[in-house]
Each structure stands twice: as structure tokens, then as C-alpha cells.
Amino acid sequence: MIEPSHRQRTLVLSICCMSLLIVSLDNTILNVALPSMRRELDADVAGLQWSIDAYTLVVASLLMLAGSTADRIGRRKVFVAGLVAFTLGSLLCSLAPSLGWLVVFRMVQAVGGAMLNPVAMSIITNTFTDPAERARAIGVWGAVAGLSMAAGPLIGGLLVDSVGWRSIFWVNLPIGLAALALTLRHIPESRAARPRRPDPVGQLLVIALLGSLTYGIIEGPAAGWRSPLIMGCALVAVCSFVGLLVYEPRREEPLIDLRFFRSAPFSGSTVIAISAFAGLAGFLFLNTLYLQDVRGLSALHAGLYMLPMAALTFLFAPVAGRLVGSRGPRICLLIAGVAMSASGLLFALFQAETSIPLLFTGYVLFGLGFGMVNAPITNTAVSGMPRSQAGVAAAIASTSRQTGGTLGVAVIGSVLAAGLAGGADFSTAAQPAWWIISVCGLLVLVVGAATSGAWARATADRTARTLELPTSPAARADVPRA
Fold this sequence. Notes:
2 strands; disordered C terminus; two-stranded antiparallel ribbon; 2 domains; single chain; Growth Hormone, Chain: A
């Protein structure tokens, strides 16, 4: 296998980052547009939750399938299919005649999104084989996520105020088409030497677990937590989880190789990803509604208010990538946990949303924390794993992110809806939600400290030796395809 030149590696990274840009930009733009969508489509809080969670739920359910399929049939093939589906889904979302159709078209988008980020990360992992260089590349990846956070609220606010919320989906069309053309021309095909076989039972169990859990949390306040519908969702979620624990270890090539979780850093990165992205999703959901519905700001002004948070994420993501490459993930995770939990406490204890100085301090702290957390999550997930399973490892990390985002919107939205239904004002109704976000930051801190030391690294080394395929090094390398 011929090692790609520095120019070729940079070009591959740029193309993969374009896919991340449209996926991340779509989420941040959508948050700014929520109040306008609610007015035009006559949606309640639960409807707004579904406009977000319909996407993240489908993505989370299909990520591991996409990762293992890419390892098996070819990463470029799956990446191209993802770009086509996401771009088409964006066009359909812009034409949605009702909230129900918007949710359906968001699911079409999600099918494409599931094939983009984990496969792109797998391509990056197999392109940047040097650990330090890979960590820097992941830092750039994180900076693009920060850039989308910075640009999303501004672009979304400008489009919503001038053209309407439907225009937020048009942004994806030129970027998606450009990324598609560049992928076909410049990204070589690659696949794992010994990819996993399909696991339809495991895939169905994952869908049942995430779907029933999310539906139950979102619909619980309206249906009643002890209603037969919600209790049934809880039963399905528990049975699906137990089914995964019992069925997957019995398969020779499972969808989720539970041996991955013998690595303390890998298990820790999963918990941290869920916590961090649950905190982010809840943070954006609360602030978007507060700034526009309570403070009465326009979509553009709401985007400008959140710019400090997005700018700090953009600035510190590449710093985190360099720190992870030179010093390991521990420092970044500790800084992230302290900053995110401190931000949540400002809102939970001091109602920071009612004071402009405290509001912006909370935004700066959260942006700093989130900027520091993404690189160690991704790097820890793929480092030490056999390259033949890079797609699966990256997909599990991405699934953790999407699961966190799904649960964040579901839980925070349900807590807010319950408070508002009880007659409380927005700040009072949101206070329990801010405590949840504070706990998410605290989990990043505690789990990061516990899973980034010498003992944790030893478990990662043992896990890597267990997972290593019993073939020659040449056979373990990826098979290049023209």
C-alpha cells in the first residue's frame, strides 16, 4: 500500500471535513430556526423535540451499521451514498408542507448523515497513521465542528430573518454537491481486510433500544409517566438492552464488540461523549427558546448572542488536538469537565440568563469546555484499535455523540415542558434542566480523570492485544482499491 503524500492527506482531510461541516451546520442552524418553525407549523415543545430527535435518533441507530458496512464494501462507496442521501434529504426538508413531513424528511437526511461522519473518521484514521499527526488531524476536525457552531447561528439567523426557515436547508446543497464531486475524484477506495459480517438482530435491538427510550422520554410528560404507552416503551428498552448484552457476545462477529469496552479509555470516551453532547444539545435547545421567546430577540440577534460560545469552541478545538497529540487526553478532559459544569452551575444557581454579564460568562465557559472535549473523545475511541475495525470503533464513538444529543433534547425538553405545563415561568421551569447540564459536565470531569491514567492505558493495551487479528501485519493492513 503506497503511503499518500502530505498534500493528498490534507486533501482527504478537507473533503471529510466538508461532510462534517454540513452535518454540524444543519444542527446549529436548525436550533436558531425552532421558534419560526413552531409559529409556521403550529408545533408544541414535543414537536420541536421531534424535529431534532428524529434526525439524531436515526443517525444513532444506523451509525454502527454504516461503519461496519463501509469496512466491508468500501468506505468511499458508503461515503458517496451518504452525501447523496443527505443532500437529497436537505432539499426535501426545505419543501416540507407540515411538521409531520419535516420529521419524515429529517429522517431521510439522517440516513445520509449516518453514513458520513463515522465513515469520514474511518477514512481519516486510515489516512493519518502516525498517532501525533492523527491527533492533529482530529483537532482540525474538531475545529470544523466549532466553525459550524460559530457560523450556524449567524447564517441561520440571517436566513430565517430575511428568507424564512426553509432556506436553512439550502446551505447544504452546494457544499454537499461539491464534496460529492471531490470525493469521486480524490478519495481512494479502501476497506478492511477482514470486515465483520452483517448482524441484523443486533441492529434491530439497537433501533428498538434507542427508539423506545427516546419516544418514552419525549412523550412521557403528555402521556403520563405511568401510562401503558410509556411503561411499554420502558419495557422494550430494558429488554432490548438485555438482549444486546446476551446476544452480541455469542456472535463471532457482532455489531457491537463488547470487548471494546474492556478498555477503560474507550468505555470512558463513550460515557464522556454521551454526557458532553447531551449537555450541548440541552444547552442549545434551552438558550434558543429563551433568547427568542422570552427575550424577544430575532433569530439573527439570538445567533449573535451565542457567538462567544461557538467562537471558543472553534478556537480551542485545534488546541485540544495538539494537546492530545503531545500530552494525552487527560488535561483536555479535566479542563472540559470543569468549564462545562461551571457553566451549568451559573444558570442553575444564579439564573445567568437574567444577567447579560453572567449569560456571556456561561457561554464562554461552555464553549471552552466543549472545544476541549471533542478531540480526546475521538482520538481515544480509535487509538489502539486494529485498523481493520476503525470504522466500527469510530462509529461507536459517533453513536455515543448522537445518543447523547438525542437524550439531551429529549430529557431537557421534557423537563422544560413539564415545568411550563405547571404554570412556571421559563427561568423557573428551566432550572432543573440546568442542573442536569451541570451533572453532564461533572461526569466529563470525573470519568475523564478516572479513565486517562496509567491503569486505564494498561487496560487499553490489553484490549488492543485481544482484538488484534491472528494474521500477519500485512494481512491486517487495509486493502487499497483504485
